[in-house]
Amino acid sequence: MPVHDFTSQRLFVPDDLAAGRELSLGKEQANYLLNVLRLAVGARSSCSMAAMARGFSELVQASRKGVVLRVDTQERPQEDGPDLVYLFAPLKRARLDFMVQKAVELGVSHLQPVITTHTQVDRVKTDRMRANVIEAAEQCGILRLPQVAEPVKLSAALAALEPQRVLVFCDERAAQAGAIEPLGAVAPGTPMAVLIGPEGGFSDRERTEIAAHPGAISVSLGPRIMRADTAAVAALTLVNATVGDWRPSAAT
Amino acid sequence: MPVHDFTSQRLFVPDDLAAGRELSLGKEQANYLLNVLRLAVGARSSCSMAAMARGFSELVQASRKGVVLRVDTQERPQEDGPDLVYLFAPLKRARLDFMVQKAVELGVSHLQPVITTHTQVDRVKTDRMRANVIEAAEQCGILRLPQVAEPVKLSAALAALEPQRVLVFCDERAAQAGAIEPLGAVAPGTPMAVLIGPEGGFSDRERTEIAAHPGAISVSLGPRIMRADTAAVAALTLVNATVGDWRPSAAT
Predict the structure, then answer these.
(1) Which residues of A47-56 are buried (b: 16+ CB within 10 A; e: fewer)?
(2) Which of A105, A99, A104, A102 is CA-nearest to residue A113?
């Protein structure tokens, strides 16, 4: 019996992947399995379950209305990942999609949209963000789905950070700080947060408020102006490389 | 007389910005200046010239067919920037656009498309890439335009690198190398190149060929699979932060 790897968005279901568990999939997923992949009862497939694990399962029941899979073995266990909160002023449509995808690839654990003075987006579509999270996780074989929070104002987002969490503030006016140096003093494995402002930057008042946050450290992303989504990837890269799981010891 | 900052794509002209110089702009740019910005003869404006400088100029002649600007002062001189070659397997349309934009924001000096075994793109539109370079430079106020080269095969691209240039190879199999550590041994200011493969990765043969390149160093971008455009931003970030102009000393 051929094994199909059907780790596509449609089959990423929010369910537990423990061996023996039966998973009921709905109409759309049934159509994909039965008519696109042409699986029949008895077929074994590998699948991913939301934020849990990847495993093999057997198709045990099939009708037009749905299919039932029975998990038999777990191929890859649930993953940990960095404790990394990503606070960001939401961007417009396509750039927000990209930003969310990239945050997932970079191992972010929480996505927190933050409303700032210069934020240009009225309504943040968190449903769309969640769909993008799943798509990116599927695409890159990531088994831990970051949580997507509802937007909050900057002050509330700062107040909600735990005292031990270090907040990386990409400060355009902190050129002398350097990019890696301020992170070098943070102990590996420390809970982190990265804050990225809107395209128009933070207001002076916001800047003062952020700098006054007890866990805040300023990092400079160099002399060139970057778009917010580029700055986000750069800042998350630096955090992963210095404090997170891109360090050589973390990879073993 | 109000000063308009018209640093938009249309007005990025491939000409010298020396004081006293007269610049002839064509129909489309004339329309923008005269009808959109509503400038008249005598108006002073700031403008950017391709890869050169930013300055103030006076509108000295205007007709439907074109306008003439006379440069009077130079506001910002020509910029240097990192000596950073970006070698990459071209991606499909939208992702290539993003990749080019981001490379410009990250200070790349040369964009070199590289054809590899798993490259999925048949024709590389270097004209489109050049347009994206200009747009990104305008957007971010970058005054040095990276050069866009015609695509070459991987072997030829490697052979063309000067002996002193360090080649950063983002090697998915080099987890123990770490991200920052291999770059820590490179002297600041060394000419650099970053090589990013196609979505399907390099073939084993290509991998061996790259590792055998005298200037090659392997860098790991962590345990998660990333899309090629994300990996590109991450790798260029690490180079800028360790060897390039994001270092604190480089910013003073």
Answers:
(1) bbbbbbbbbb
(2) A99
Tokens of A30: 């049934």
What is the rounded distance in angstroms from the CA atom of residue A122 to the CA atom of residue A104?
Answer: 24
Sequence letter at residue A196: I
Q: Is B185 at the interface with chain A, CB within 8 A?
A: no
- Distance between CA atoms of A103 and B103, rounded to whole angstroms? 18
Q: A interface mutation test: which of B7, B226, B236, B239 has the most A CBs within 10 A?
A: B226
Asked if B230 and A102 come within 8 Å (Cβ–Cβ), the reply is: yes
**Do the chains contact at A178 and B244, CB–CB below 8 Å?**
no
Tokens of A71: 């998990």
Which pLDDT tens digits describe chain A residue by residue (252 residues)? 333 444 333 355 555 666 677 777 777 777 777 777 777 777 766 555 544 455 566 777 777 777 787 776 666 655 678 899 999 999 888 889 999 999 999 999 999 999 999 887 778 889 999 889 988 887 777 777 888 999 999 999 999 999 999 999 998 888 778 999 999 999 999 999 999 998 888 999 999 999 999 999 999 999 888 999 999 999 999 999 999 999 987 644
Whether A72 contacts A34, CB under 8 Å: no
The length of chain B in residues reads: 252
B245 touches chain A (CB under 8 A): yes
Q: What is the ipTM of this complex?
A: 0.77
Buried b (16+ CB within 10 A) or exposed e, A194-207: bbbbbeebbeeebb
**B252 close to A (CB below 8 A):** yes
Put simply, the answer to whether B222 touches A246 (Cβ < 8 Å) is yes
CA distance B172 to A41: 37
Residue A185 has, within 13 A of its CA and on its CB side, a CA count of: 12
Indicate the pTM of the whole model.
0.78
